[in-house]
Fold:
Amino acid sequence: MIDTLLEPFQYQFVVNGMYAAVLAGALCGLLGVFITLRGMSYIGHGLSHAVFGGYAAAPLLGLPIVLGAGAWGLGSALLINVVARSRRIGADAAIGVITTASFALGVALLTRFGTKGPAFDALLFGSINGVGRDELLLLLGALLFAAVTFTALYRAFLFTTFDPDVADVSGISVKRMDALLMLVLSVSILATLTIIGVTLVAATLVIPAVVVRMLTDSFSRMLWASTALGAAAGAIGMYLSYHLAIPSGTTIVLVNALAFVVVLLATGPRGLRRAAGMDDHSDVPAVAPVAAVR
Structure:
């Protein structure tokens, strides 16, 4: 029994995958709080598709995959912001047009020219195979970048998340903060893509934050609890993926979904109301800290 439980840890690729899943889960859990509270849940799904296009295009342009895909994703995110702010087309429509076009271009390029990077299936659904030192360093760097950014600019991000109009009048550049958030999001998606996969990144960004929101109104508690839940779901999902012989991204999302069901059953209608109004920003405990920034 014990031998069966410990069997996965005999293989270095599983151990590396476990490290990667914990880092990826923590990163997505942390970032997901800002994404969901801003009502931007769909953009995580969209940007993962945009970065997929960059993965395919970068080698053909003679660029390193990480640099090319990251620049492609950031460019897509900024373009979405510009189009959405013009108010000529809604944010949902902008995300749909730009990111699906990028994804389709990526599929076309991979089909026509092949890939020098991760396999097509690994990009779509995630995989523990091939996770090495470079991928772990990229994940660690992305997590540190996000943690340092949100810590150093905590008040500014808090203000722009809950009251962007007043923040702009008060001297905080909302456009600059939005662009910085898009940069962190693009880097994070780039780092987690081969672990979780294009089709499932959005779930790992959204579910931990929603689960934690059902349990608390505190913004600060949401940050650390969502990060912890994402890391735990990553570890459990990666471990189960070995025994179940299914893609790692799939099991990680299923573990997150199970946590959602358990918390929903435990909190009942109250938790559901909290989750349903995540971007409403009318809860006093969440808005109160903003007043201190003014």
User: Anything to note?
Assistant: The domain at 2-291 is CATH 1.10.3470.10 (ABC transporter involved in vitamin B12 uptake, BtuC). The chain has a mean pLDDT of 79.
